[in-house]
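Supplementary Note 2. Why include the ligand at all?

Several targets in our set were suspected to adopt different conformations when bound, so apo predictions alone were not considered sufficient. For every target with a known small-molecule partner we therefore ran a joint prediction. The input for zinc ion is given below.
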Amino acid sequence: MITKKELIGIFQKNPERYWKVKLFDDLGFKRKQCKNCGKFFWTLSDQETCNDSTCKPYKFINKPVTKKPLNIFKTWKVIQKFFVDNGHIPLKRYPTVCRWYPLYFTIAGIVNFYRIDENGDLDWEFPANPSILLQPSLRFNDIPNVGLNSKSFTCFGMIQQTSLFDGKNGYWKDKCIELDFNLLTKVFKIKPEEINFIEDVWIGHGAFGSSLEYHVQGIELGNAVFTEFMGTPSNYREMKEKIIDMGAGWERFTWITQGTPTCYDAAFGPVLKKMKKFCDFKYDKKLFLNYAKISGKVNLDEYSDLNIALSKVATQLGISVGELKKSIEPLQALYSVADHTRALVFALADGGLPSNVAGGYNLRVILRRALSFIDKFKWNLNIQDVVNWHIQYLKKMFPELEEKKDEINKILEVEIKRYKNTKERISRIIESLSGKTPTQEELIKLYDSEGITPEQLGIEASSDFYARVTERHMVEKKEEEKIALDISGLPKTKILYYDDVCNFRAKVLKVAGNFVVLDQTAFYPTSGGQEHDTGYINGCKVVDVIKLHSVIIHKIEPCNVKEGQIVECKVDKKRREILKKHHTAIHIVNGAARKILGFHVHQHGAEKTEEKARIDITHFESLTEEQEEKIEEIANQIVEKALPIKKFVMKRGEAEKKYGFEIYAGGYIPSRELRIVEIKGYDVEACGGLHCNNTKEVGFIKILRTKRVADGLVRIEIKAGDIALSYLKEKEKILKEVAKKLKVKEEKVPEAVKKLFEDWKKKRKLLKKLRKRIGQNANIEKRVE
Ligand SMILES: [Zn+2]
Ligand SMILES: [Zn+2]
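The joint prediction is reproduced in token form.
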């Protein structure tokens, strides 16, 4: 595996090829190596060091680059206008919770356009070319630097300039840098000699290329990535269609026009002002200003120890690390609270849910971190107020946040209560530590198992603590099934199961042990949580059906089918019908759960077997009996309505445009074409499973039970159709038996049971009284109870 550093080394053997653009020649940019950090950069000036924040202080603090300060809204307006005037199509933002690609969150604007193709490789989906948009992005690997270096966020707006260049359409490096240079010099009036372009590379999941970061007065404002190779640096091919992926910092552009001490002051505007009022702490403003100017050097990615990270800066300021830490800590906390709450606003509005699973883990981390800061400094600050101030401020650009306000607050209430409850366990844990300081690993375990933060224990964790706990929860991992069968060279299996076929003939293409591959099949392979079909191939029992990329593999009981042979196949129709009903019922229940519980409800997993079906939904607490009943009621209403269920194949981009990203209910789908399952007027999902043609065919849906299976996950188990009916009949039989034993009519059973229970309680009370009277006699109790 080639590292980023090695790739830079390879490219730097030929810098003209990878980094030089026309503008550099036209204006006479020179290539230099920074005396301080060693990076190569392009400049018009004679400076010996680059403009990165590790090499330069933030020069614009108190000396903004523009005459008039711009707030975040105006900043975006002028930038968007510039790109639109230059032929870019403006796009709407995408959700911050990423449902179309195996990432939990949208970590950058370009992620909007990432997809996975049929072979599991990186693929692209561009709705317009070239395009410009502002993408709120969430990243949790930079948590420790938030509030500290004046520029890092967990939630930031990425200005995403994208162009797909195929030789004719779109543009490539020269035009990209020309545009970005003009944005800086013409719109933001930055002097050309103040701009540095630093050579860098980008290695993503499945693609890479060179990049030019543009730095001005100590701050990186943007990074233009020239994606031109698919694969990895050790095994790649040049792309026919190359991609310009320029991401710039919305908050940073705002910051340089305002010249505030930190980027947070510029980005959070009135929210931060209100927060400061509520927290009302004193700090040395002059010292902080001096710190802020050079705070770009503080980097906890390099040093996990805050003392080491701050030592250089402290020396420069002429004070001790201890003094510096004491003076900046409350501000770091305040800025972090502002940042974390804004991240939560976007994530929750987009359907994220704090929990202990998947991406929800990160959301809980930042919420608890924010709450811990408020606790630590004993601020009279209500975190929900901060959330609502953010919404109030942002709503004119993001009205959807206001729409989701009530539900965001409801989720936060539950989460805050949970955080407070953990406090009770804290004293117990502190006791069990008996004065010993836990190791980092133990602290992480404590957070994982109990949800308790180091701050709550009064322990100073290493500065990368939160980065380390979130690290493992960034990327969704999908395990590939291991099958002892080589499918290379086999053609895509022709699929018959969508056409309701049960009896068919096929040609055997490959036999390996118990595995058989046919040229076509009606056997549905286990996928999307739906169990496979069973049946017979030439009289041999089919016990499992698996899909590997586009080849379907049948596992059969020992049999002598041979390659090249034509076989008679028969799918077990009864089982197929039950699975279809269960599968369709899960779509219906999912829709009903969203209607009753809210937009944060998403399918986390599902399983449809012959016996029953289940769906795990994201929800913050156990369901009440009433909620359960309502979901069942709505589900059965939908069944009764006999809504047609349409199934059709659509181009991925078109489907996303028409129905939104909620179609990825079961997760991202590695395909350029999506099979859409639409229950008219009720629910639309991209789904490859088998469904009824009409909701009425499901017959009847019975919720068996619901259960909180994990933090943030509720499991709903159901039966549908005949299976549900025989289940009810079974229950009825039991009821009859009970009624018989109680010697009452069936409808009187609840009453009779209640009476029985009350009698038992009375007797128990009496017994306790007696026991008291005769002194302790545990034996009696044991015998009677
Ligand atoms: Zn440098
Ligand atoms: Zn489905």
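The first helix runs from residue 4 to 11. Residues 34, 36-37, 39, 49-50, 52, 55 surround zinc ion (ligand 1) (CB under 6 Å). Comparable summaries for the other entries are listed in the accompanying table.
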